Every structure is written in structure tokens, then in C-alpha cells.
Amino acid sequence: MAHLPRIEIVYCSQCRWLLRAGWTAQELLTTFAAELGEVALVPGGSGIFEVWLNDELIWSRQEQGRFPELKELKQRVRDRIAPEKDLGHSDRLSGS
Length: 96
Prior knowledge:
Elements: E1 6-12, H1 18-31, E2 38-44, E3 49-53, E4 56-60, H2 61-64, H3 70-81
Parallel strand pairs: 1-2
Antiparallel strand pairs: 1-3, 3-4
């Protein structure tokens, strides 16, 4: 069996962002059940909320100035691990 990608969500435990990180992990695991090997939750501090795909940072709350919308996060993951995958409503433009 081929090695499947790993997602790591690093969240600020002091900010109590575990529920947000867990919800994000659940959504990614549901959407990419066959394409992901693991989603790990990693406690951190200092207001961190980062999403890593293998060794690539694909979202940083500090860099973007906000949390990711699930739609855009799913698109970033999909574009890297399963570009042919249809995300249904997550692929449609806002207002469509």
C-alpha cells in the first residue's frame, strides 16, 4: 500500500482552539477518507493555528490573518493530493 499523505493541525491550546482543530480534522477526514492516511492534532501556543500537509505549510492563521474557511482549506488539500476530486458544493463559487 502506498504511503498516504498526513495532515497536521497545530492549534493554540491556551486559546482553547481544540474544538476548532477537531472540527477541521473531522471535515478533512470525511472529505478525503480514501486519500488521507492521518490527520493529527498538535497542541501549541502563542495563538498558532497552522495546517500542514506532509512538510508543506498550507495554512497559517498568522500569515493570512484569519482562520481558514473550510471550503478554501479543502480546495488547497484537494489541489495537492487529489486534483481530479470533485468537492461538490465546496467547488462552487460564492453566490452560485
